[in-house]
Amino acid sequence: MKQDVFLDARDDHVFEIRLERPERMNALGVATVRALGEAIDEATKRRARVLLIRGSGRAFCAGADLKERKGMDLAARLAHNAAINAAVDAIAAARCVTIAVLNGLALGGGLEMALACDLRLAASGIQLGLTESRVGAFPGAGGSQRLPRVVGVSRALHMMLTGEPVSSEYALGIGLVNEVVLPEALTERAHAIARLLGQRSAPAQATLKRLVYEGIELPLEAALRLERAALPGILGSADYAEGLTAFEEKRAPHFTGVAE
Q: Whose C-alpha in 36, 103, 232, 251 is 20 to 30 A from the C-alpha of 168?
């Protein structure tokens, strides 16, 4: 049977998940979602520090496979959606840095998957959107909650209510993506960022992610307490000691800590 998802180890601590279903624009069918979840779990078990997620062909991911879903009864549709949610939530919960490499069209569940990542790099000239309103639905894999947190309520509602995709250039302007790169340079740029992040301290990065995502939901005073409470674990760590030594010796640090 054809494999829909591949997990590759690129460099030390850098892994890449590639959706390999270009004939269906990497749509998330039942088997594809199952394979995606397994790949995320495997990357986590192998203690990835950076996880890239990308598509093949002309799409990143066109979202749920609506051709498959049309033939499902309600229970099957809900189970399919729950599986997509589980995969998206696993990306969001990853301790490592996650990067969506948007090589092409990212719609519906595809954009929801990208929204669960920490960073998003996009090829120029592509389209992104939460298009569920076109088929009488709404974003049900986190999009209705994550998009407003990224771009603001008004812009998010406009995108979701109209169901109209936006260009990667517009997405950059509203903070939906971090960078827009020429298509032929996207892979090289993504790998360069991944290599850089892979050299950073895994415990420090995992702690930083937690502080940002938890703290943004709290009043400032409570968030600052959260930050201060995390300091002893980092300032007393072996990685921080190595960082100070490397600074003194004018060399690059070699971090060995593991994000727990």
A: 36
